[in-house]
Amino acid sequence: MSASPPQKNRPSLTEGPIARTLLFFSLPILLGNVLQSLNGSINAIWIGNFLGETALAATSNSNLIMFFLISAIFGLAMASVILVGQNLGARRVDEAKKVVGTSTVFFLILSLIVTGIGLTFSHWILQAMNTPPDAQALAVAYTRVLFAGVPFMFGFNLVMAVLRGSGDAKTPFYFLLLSAVLDIALNPLLIEGIGPFPRMGIAGSATATFIAQLVSFAALILFLYRRKYFLRITAEELHLLRINWTIVKTTVKKGVPMGLNMIVVSLSNLVLIHLVNSYGSEAAAAFGVAGQLSSYVQMPAMAVGGAVTSMAAQNIGAGLWDRVSRVTWTGVAFNITLTGLLVLILHLFNRQALGLFLPSTGKAMEMGMVINNLTLWSFILFGIFNVVAGVVRSSGSVVVPLVISFIALLLVRNPLAVFLGHHYGFEAIWWSFPVGFAVAAGLNLLYYRFGSWRKARMVAEPRPA
Question: What residue segments make up the domains of the chain, in order of their start?
Answer without folding.
Answer: 31-243, 255-454
